[in-house]
Amino acid sequence: MDSLLEKIEILKAIVHPVRIGILEELMKGAKCVTDFEGFPDVNQPNFSQYLSVLRDHGVVD
After folding, report:
1. 7-29: string of b/e by CB count within 10 Å (b at 16+)?
2. Is the pTM of this model over 0.85?
């Protein structure tokens, strides 16, 4: 079981509005990065950083 601090870190990784939007899209089904081209107000380098945060915390793979 994850410690309380690990759970807090995961929640902090998710709480950003763009990352929530990414997760909402992924809940509809698996996607590759190119499926997110044109994601509102996010350029490709920033989008990759958002995904990295989610991946680093084990939220997505």
Report:
1. eeeeeebeeeebbebbeeebeee
2. no
